[in-house]
Model the fold of this input.
Amino acid sequence: MESPVIQTVPLGFQWPTLDPFLFCVHHLDTYPAGDGRLGPAASLDGRSIGNDFEPVDGWRMYHGSHVPGFPQHPHRGFETITFVRRGLIDHSDSLGATARFGRGDVQWMTAGAGIQHAEMFPLLDDDGPNTVEMFQIWMNLPAADKMVDAHFTMLWDDDVPRHVADGTTVTVIAGRLADPTGTVEPPTPPPASYASRPDADVALWHVTLEPGATWTMPAAAGDGVARVLYVFEGDGIDVDGTAVEGSTGAVVDATRDLTITSAGPTEMLVMQGRPIGEPVAQQGPFVMNTEDEIRQAFTDYRATQFGGWPWDTPDPTHGHDGTRFARHADGRIEYADKTPV
Done:
């Protein structure tokens, strides 16, 4: 039988992706203690403030000037999926919505016709380290859905199912998982998400393997589906007799069940979906199908600011309370611990 591994690529800061995905990055920053104002209690001298992407001392400020993160910026025409394993993210947007999420939570935002938002990393612990680990994934939208209303859904940690069997744990963010030991149904994605289309066969699974663990990854539901395994932690895996080294992305045959074995502790992210197969025109935070549509996106943004910016700073944060919550544009409030509103 031929090897199921079609192609391998090394993982850099930004991971290579296949249609329908546009972008994926794994942020891991070991921030120091906080300074009492949600920033790092450390000198910022020598950093390129406003564009700090070098991991000096194991952490980066990104576009933040005092609090690390990504201040006010626009999006149109695609979706962002933010899976936070450690630390907290403060979200604010041009629709007036806010959220604080992390510690296993996922925010899934359909940018659609346009939205501005900020994603800041508040350092709440003034006495110890403030590690932030997260994946941010951009997934394209079909032309028919690029101009839908912007919307985000919170998938709180307690609502994201984990499948545990034989030394393997699979966190099921999207995509029904039906392996030989059981079936796990994923949370519901946003209503206009590409993942909400049954024939899209979108899956996002975070997989941890204990030393010597073997897991059978089930085949995708239909033909023509793209699947990539990103082995980002550990020395590598064996996929049906083919070695895939650590820090490697492997495009694999999604039509086959795959037997995956780890020699040591391993983590990987699985991204899967049916290609949209439409032209992609992208400039910065806008992803459309034609260059004319990109020019229109800039015109619309200059004219409307995608709803304006209702906050008095480009980098809002939400105080020192560690409560994880979301306040939606319609005024609805939800909490990670399901506290009644």
In short: The chain has two domains: 21-160+282-310, 161-278.
